[in-house]
Amino acid sequence: MYVLDVATPPGDDPSAVVDALRERFADEGAVAVVRRDPSLADADDRTTVRLGGDRRRVTTDSRASLPGTLDDLARDHDFALTVGFDDAALPRLAVGDVAVDDPLAHVADAADLDPDVVLAAIRETEPHESLGSLVAAAKRSADERFAGAIATFTGRVRAQENADDAPTEALTFETYADVAAERLDDIRATLEARDGVHDVLLHHRTGRIEAGEDIVFVVVLAGHRREAFRAVEDGIDRLKDEVPIFKKEVTVDDEFWRHERDA
Amino acid sequence: MEWKLFADLAEVAGDDRITVSVPADATVGDALEALLDDRPALRERVLADDGTLYDHVNLLRNGADASLADDAAPDDELALFPPVSGG
């Protein structure tokens, strides 16, 4: 699922831009619109989710985070437009005179918007995947009728090795994107060539990931559990050995590249 | 040709993409020399005392493992990176 945050100056109504994008994206797949509702006093805790397709509007007063909401939406949506989450690390469309660092695109107003240009730009971004979205994709496999097992691995940001360890606040991942994609594809193809292994999905997030959040997923759709477990283990082991991704650790009192501590 | 640098190597060099020019019959080693002449701080980070690359420094040419003796072409993408640490 591709995610785009629409940022407008305070007080401006983003609806015209959001509606135009939603109309265009709906030609390509299911669209969700996620708004932080400014009419709610404690807006940080309340999120309105308007789902695409049947255009249901769901208002939640749960404490669900934006990442958690996106994780859920990614199971059955191709696009999410977010409004009012200027503080989230997302690809961002800047509308009008709004201060945005490194926007994906910038338009003066709704009349200036070319949704095709924005569509092409977000397809160059890293899609939002979650364990749920990858498992859902595995279940949509053409081979699902032959599969009696789905095994998964989720790697997440560990805050502490033990109670005395300086807490890790976040990890930042940098990747050699083209080579990483080639090597992930090679791992996938090798594992899928095994008897009884039908589909393998590998996804590694990049950028800053906070303590407790998910980093990497391996999902295997297989005929039986043994080949599923084995492929998951071999998949994550090969990913960690071969794929050019680099981890910087931010603790409460330090910041360092992981490989410098492992050497 | 263009060098791509990652993690602390990019920090030491001050950039993550650096273009160098070398003669038509140059090797990857010549391209590395051109890079290190341009970014002297990187030299001791990637080269051992005997002038070879440290074992833990990865060298790629157009996405494949390479050695300093390989030929280098003007449109090559060369890369240096430390041990991978994903996951």
Automatic annotation (TrEMBL), chain A:
One example of a Gene Ontology biological process annotation: Mo-molybdopterin cofactor biosynthetic process
Enzyme's top EC category: transferase
UniProt cross-references to InterPro entries, sorted A to Z: MoaE_sf (IPR036563), Mopterin_biosynth_MoaE (IPR003448)
Record has Signal as a keyword: no
Alphabetized UniProt keyword annotations: Transferase
EC number(s) on file: 2.8.1.12
A molecular-function term among this protein's GO annotations: molybdopterin synthase activity
Any Pfam family matching the protein: MoaE
Top-level taxonomic group: Archaea
Protein name: Molybdopterin synthase
Organism of this sequence: Halarchaeum rubridurum
UniProtKB/TrEMBL annotation, chain B:
GO cellular component: molybdopterin adenylyltransferase complex
Keywords for the protein's UniProt record, in alphabetical order: Nucleotide-binding
Keyword Nucleotide-binding among UniProt keywords: yes
Biological processes, Gene Ontology terms: Mo-molybdopterin cofactor biosynthetic process
A GO molecular function held by the record: nucleotide binding
Matching Pfam families: ThiS
PANTHER family listed in its UniProt record: MOLYBDOPTERIN SYNTHASE SULFUR CARRIER SUBUNIT (PTHR33359:SF1)
UniProt name for this protein: Molybdopterin synthase sulfur carrier subunit
Origin species: Halarchaeum rubridurum
Lineage, broadest ranks: Archaea, Methanobacteriati, Methanobacteriota, Stenosarchaea group, Halobacteria
